[in-house]
């Protein structure tokens, strides 16, 4: 299949592209603005098999240049970090809102199938039970609010224009190549360096962890088998409190418990996320990787791939970290 995959120089998109090229022989063009979170190195395993276009999804000329004779668009491009959306929300409206709109227009002009990659955060927090696709949308951060707006726009293009649009909502992802501002790589890299491990609030926030390859295959499943105009949840098989994740990382890296430091909670921090994935399971998808196995693989990957994270930890990320946590990184 000929695909335009936007935002694929990031964590999940690069995994998706690897899977599509290796397992399906797809002909992929990547469009990515290479923000702080996007790196062409993330695509190095497939670089000779794909076409890469540097550009922003909110730029109609860049989209027209990248789209070629694609049969479908899969959109990963987004500003994705909740903490950054609290400090600097406007970039989130532009990419997550306007950018999605420009891609939808390009899909409409050409009659292309369109998959929007979205998140469980659009449902907000849930104390017990799990969200289904018909649960109310109650986003609580500028990140999740702009993702929610984008989802609604995507679905409106099905209802208004009959375009084949679909939404795949994933729970919290983890795995290789995730930018170290996110919980799991942050804790792994800090533990390996002997830096403090900043845990928000009481550490009892619960997340429904999904290994990145499982989400990549889930999105592929929605692309191939999903019904236009529908939303599909892709949840991980296990839930875990943040503090338990951190303790497990300490064990896997051989670091000491004393590195844990409780810090002031994130504003509006959602307590628990949980997704029911029965709708996508009925189409034949289930997450395969249990959290214990995926976390071990992820720690091993960061241990073996310093080439990937060293430039990040010695670059602009250090300044971001200092501003955000009021502490500098050791290495
Ligand atoms: N990480 C998670 O746990 C998770 C869970 C569910 C859904 N999602 C969604 O999956 C998608 C990918 O997330 P990720 O974790 O891989 O993100 P990421 O931050 O690692 O990557 C985002 C990518 O988008 C690119 N990008 C940003 N702004 C752009 C723009 N204006 N034009 C073109 N490219 C732009 C960046 O350069 C980067 O390559 C996002 O839409 C996110 O909302 C993420």
What's the alpha carbon Rg, rounded to whole Å?
Answer: 19 Å
> Could you tell me the mean pLDDT?
97
What strand order characterises the main sheet?
A: 3-2-1-4-5-6-10
Specify the structural class: alpha/beta
What's the total number of strands? 12
Give the ordered list of helices and strands: EHEEHEHHEHEEHEEHEEHEHHHH
Strand content: 15-25%
Report on this structure.
This protein is 43% helix and 17% strand. It has helices at 11-24, 60-67, 82-87, 90-110, 142-161, 183-193, 212-225, 242-253, 278-281, 291-304, 306-313, 316-325, and strands at residues 2-6, 27-32, 51-54, 72-75, 113-119, 165-170, 173-174, 197-200, 206-211, 231-234, 238-241, 260-263. The N and C termini lie far apart (44 Å). It is α/β, with parallel strands linked by helices. It is built from twelve helices and twelve strands. Helix 6 (183-193) runs parallel beside helix 8. The strands form three sheets. The protein has a seven-stranded parallel β-sheet with strand order 3-2-1-4-5-6-10, with helices on both faces. It has a three-stranded mixed β-sheet with strand order 7-9-11. Nicotinamide-adenine-dinucleotide (NAD) binds at residues 6-7, 9-13, 32-35, 37-38, 56-58, 76-80, 95, 99, 117, 119, 147, 170, 172-173, 179.
């Amino acid at each position: 299949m000929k695909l335009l995959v936007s935002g694929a120089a990031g964590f999940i998109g690069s995994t998706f592209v690897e899977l599509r090229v290796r397992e399906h022989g797809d002909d992929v063009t990547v469009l990515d603005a290479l923000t702080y979170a996007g790196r062409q190195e993330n695509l190095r395993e497939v670089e000779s098999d794909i076409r890469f276009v540097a550009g922003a999804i909110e730029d109609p000329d860049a989209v027209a240049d990248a789209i070629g004779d694609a049969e479908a668009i899969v959109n990963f491009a987004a500003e994705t970090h909740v903490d950054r959306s609290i400090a600097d929300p406007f970039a989130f409206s532009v990419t997550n809102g306007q950018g999605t709109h420009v891609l939808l227009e390009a899909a409409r002009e050409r009659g292309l199938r369109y998959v929007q990659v979205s998140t469980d955060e659009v449902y907000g927090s849930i104390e017990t039970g799990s969200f289904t696709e018909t649960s109310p949308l109650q986003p609580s951060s500028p990140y999740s609010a702009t993702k929610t707006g984008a989802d609604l726009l995507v679905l409106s293009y099905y209802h208004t224009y009959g375009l084949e649009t679909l939404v795949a909502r994933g729970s919290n992802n983890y795995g290789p190549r995730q930018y170290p501002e996110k919980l799991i790589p942050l804790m792994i890299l800090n533990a390996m360096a002997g830096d403090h491990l900043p845990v928000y609030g009481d550490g009892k926030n619960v997340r429904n962890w999904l290994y990145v390859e499982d989400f990549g295959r889930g999105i592929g499943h929605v692309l191939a088998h999903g019904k236009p105009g529908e939303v599909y949840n892709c949840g991980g098989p296990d839930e875990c409190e943040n503090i338990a994740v951190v303790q497990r990382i300490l064990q896997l890296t051989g670091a000491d418990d004393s590195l844990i430091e409780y810090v002031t909670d994130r504003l509006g921090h959602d307590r628990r996320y949980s997704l029911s994935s029965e709708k996508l399971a009925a189409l034949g998808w289930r997450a395969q990787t249990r959290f214990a196995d995926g976390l071990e693989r992820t720690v091993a990957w960061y241990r073996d791939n310093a080439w990937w994270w060293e430039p990040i930890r010695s670059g602009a990320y250090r300044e971001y970290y200092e501003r955000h946590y009021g502490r500098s990184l050791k290495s």
